[in-house]
Every structure is written in C-alpha cells, then in structure tokens.
Design a protein that fits this description.
The chain has 2 domains: 109 residues, Rieske [2Fe-2S] iron-sulphur domain (Rieske Iron-sulfur Protein), CATH 2.102.10.10; 241 residues, Naphthalene 1,2-dioxygenase Alpha Subunit, Chain A, domain 1 (Alpha-Beta Complex). The chain contains 11 helices and 19 strands. It has a 7-stranded antiparallel sheet, with helices on both faces. Strands 5-4-3-6 form a 4-stranded antiparallel sheet, with no helix packed on it. β8 and β9 form a beta hairpin. The longest helix is centred in the C-terminal third of the chain and has 14 residues. The protein is globular and about 90 Å long. It binds FE2/S2 (inorganic) cluster (FES) and fe (ii) ion (FE2). The site of FE2/S2 (inorganic) cluster has 8 residues, from loops.
Length: 415
C-alpha cells in the first residue's frame, strides 16, 4: 500500500507577524518559492562593492539567492550586473571570484560575451566544409547573457532581475541615512571571509534585526560595557518596514532599579570580570556622534555593521533550506592611516566571523535550527515591544523589526 502524502497546510498562524511558523524555515517548496518571489522578485539585492571592481574590466562573482551573478565595470566605467549563465547550455561564463578581463569566455563550447553581456562570437557558428554550424536564422544579438538592473548607493552595488523597481534611494527610505552615516567616503576592501552554516537564511536574517539579543546572547558586550540595555540607543525602521538599523552609545549607562533587576538574571551580568589586556575595548569616535555600534539590515539579505572601528558588510547566500553562506567584506576608507587600518583589523576579533561577539550569531542560528527540528507546525513567539508592526517606539527592547520582516516576507510570498 502506498503512503498518502498529506499536503502541508501553509496557513500562517492567526496572530500574524508576531508568529513565524517553523515550516517556513525548512520546507523545500517554500525555498523554491522564495527563489522566485523574493530573490527574483521586486527587490534590490546587494551584490558587492564598487571598490571591488575599481577599473574597466574588473569583475566579481556573486549571487542573488542561489542564482550566480557577475558584476563588472565595462569599458566606459559603467557598473553592470549579468547572470553568470551561458546563453548556450547554461555553463558559468565566469568561474573566478574576482579579476580583470576584456570579455567572458565560456570554456564549454567557446561562446564569448562582452562586458555588457552581449554575445560577440559562437565558435564554429558557420560549421566546417559546409557541415554543422548554427542555423541561418541564428542572430548573435538574441543570445546575450541575461542583463540585470543595476544601481549604486554609497559605494554599494545593488542588482535585480526586475527592471522597473523604484530608485534605490526610495527603496531604502529612512534607512538610507544609516548607510550614509557609515559609508561617508571612498571605501577600500580590507579582506574577506565566508561562514558556511547549517541554518536557513531567514534564521540569520532575523538575528541582526533582533536588537533584543545583542546585550543578552553576547556576554562580551554587556560584561565589558560596549553595549547594555541601560545605554542611549534607538531602533529606526523605514516606513515600508523592510529595512532597519539600531545603534548604541557606549558610556551613556543610566541604570535604574528596573534595569538592575532585569540585568541580574542575565548570563552576561559579570560585574567583577576584567580583561587582562583591555586594548580591544579602545576605539576612535570617527563619526563624532558617540555611536559605537550600529547594525543595519536591508531586506532580504544584507547587513552593514559599525562595531567600534570595525566596518563590514555581510551578504546572505542561501544554498538550500538548511544551509547558507554568509559572505563578509571588511571595509576601510581610502583616507585611513596605517594605524586606523590596524585598529579596524584588530576589531574583527570582536566583530568578524570568528569574533568574540559575532561568532555567537551563526552559532545560535544553528542551535535554533536544531531546536526547531521536527517541529514544523510549531511557531516562534515575537511579542517583545508589542504584537503589531508599529508599537514599541524606538526602544531596542523590541522585536518590532522582526515583525516587520515577517510582514514584508509574507506579503511577497503570498503566505
Ligand atoms: S555552454 Fe557555454 S558555450 Fe556551450
Ligand atoms: Fe548578535
């Protein structure tokens, strides 16, 4: 007797954005739908930095969702984004992470594409000795690489399959200010790494939006005072609810009785602890506003952080329902002194992929994934700071950013 497979009930819990059902993290059909509705849907996607493709002919391999993409600078210096898929039979036309080239050459059967993505030649197109070759109606201009919409903002490059999106400034809304604050001058690339972790991309997307966990999970922050609930801080969400950032000002602690009571239950409450070498805590207030931590998330897969003097962007690349790559690019500025570059690199010991703080984020995503395994029909509870999209003011003690994420996601996915 054959087993009867019951189709999953994709009804979202009636509480709406204050719940996220666990099937949304693990169901392969949801993953496939996301590739269409989110990654090939009406969103701008971060795909790299202008500083990574500084000259005509510079290119970088990247992704939008699980689709391979190339960004490059053409002969005129214009930034282009192309799908990295040969128009013949689908081979990658670019297999290097970065480099310089005059054209993209497909190794499989030698079709050659320009930096604009146009097909320049197809080997043996006219056959040999009157045999073989492509049909008489074959036209080079019909077989270019798929061209993506492409735009830039403060040195960040964004691309999309959709060609009639609003300008990037409109799409970012108020959260654009958070990018302009940090990326306020020409950038340089200090280094790269990739974390490959066993969780869904949305497990991680929730994490940097989750201003609540910062001082709780990350014991280093609270223990050594870099970020505490009693400090001056704020959470900014754009009017569409897609994007957000939050920030903290170190040294502005105003601990009241309620703070003391709550903090006493935290694992991160270690008042007696001291660092043998406190140099990791030193930082320069390079923006002159006292903000030592700003974490900014763009829907659906981008993070920009300033943590002390560490500045980095992170790009989520889903590789399946339960596996994700997190690509980090560590950033400096063209006018940095050698000492500032040293400080930025030193602070990656806090905020890099293996940093004392940041490594806990992917670790906890994997723990959540293990915790929710076998519980597809249960749901998370997201009511800190209220149940809806707008309540909670600008306090960081709120999961408002998560509710807004789930609202945006559900709208795009029709769930
Ligand atoms: S797949 Fe690229 S030339 Fe054949
Ligand atoms: Fe975190």
């Amino acid at each position: 007797m054959s087993a009867v497979m019951q189709a999953r009930d994709y009804t979202w819990p009636p509480e709406g954005p204050s719940r996220a059902p666990y099937w949304v993290f693990e169901d392969p059909s949801i993953y496939a739908r996301e590739q269409r509705d989110v990654f090939r849907g009406r969103n701008w996607h971060f795909v790299g930095l202008e500083a990574e493709i500084p000259e005509p002919g510079s290119f970088k391999s990247t992704h939008i969702g699980d689709m391979p993409v190339i960004i490059c600078r053409d002969e005129s210096g214009t930034v282009r984004a192309l799908v990295n898929r040969c128009a013949h039979r689908g081979n990658l036309v670019c297999s290097k992470s970065h480099g310089k080239t005059e054209e993209f050459y497909c190794v499989y059967h030698a079709w050659i594409f320009s930096l604009q993505g146009d097909l320049k030649s197809a080997a043996f197109r006219r056959g040999i000795r009157g045999e073989g070759g492509l049909p008489a109606d074959f036209r080079l201009e019909d077989h270019g690489l798929q061209k993506l919409a492409c735009t830039t903002f403060c040195g960040l490059v964004f691309a999309s399959v959709v060609h009639d999106l609003p300008p990037i400034e409109d799409w970012l809304g108020e959260v654009g200010q958070g990018i302009q604050r940090v990326l306020n001058r020409p950038l340089t690339v200090l280094g790269y790494d990739t974390q490959r972790f066993s969780a869904n991309w949305k497990n991680y997307h929730e994490n940097p939006r989750d201003s609540l966990h910062a001082n709780i999970l990350h014991t280093f922050y609270a223990t050594f005072g870099l970020s505490r609930q009693g400090q001056e801080s704020a959470l900014v969400i754009d009017s569409s609810g897609r994007h957000q950032y939050f920030y903290t000002k170190v040294g502005t602690d105003k601990p009241g009785t309620d703070y003391k009571e709550a903090a006493s239950t935290l694992r991160s409450h270690n008042e007696g602890f001291k660092l043998e070498d406190p140099s990791i805590l030193k930082w320069t207030d390079e923006y002159g506003d006292g903000i030592n931590i700003q974490i900014l998330s763009l829907y659906p897969t981008f993070v920009l952080h300033q943590i002390s003097n560490s500045i980095a962007v992170r790009q989520l690349v889903p590789t399946g329902p339960g596996t994700t790559d997190l690509n980090w690019i560590y950033i400096g500025f063209a006018d940095d002194t050698p000492e500032m570059t040293e400080t930025r690199l030193f602070h990656t010991n806090l905020a890099g992929s293996a940093g004392l703080v940041s490594m806990e984020d992917t670790a906890v995503c994997q723990m959540v994934r293990r915790g929710t395994s076998g519980s597809a029909d249960a749901a998370s509870f997201i009511e800190m700071g209220g149940k809806d999209l707008v309540s909670g003011g600008s306090t960081k003690l709120s999961e408002k950013g998560l509710r807004n994420f789930w609202h945006t996601y559900r709208t795009q996915m029709g769930l």
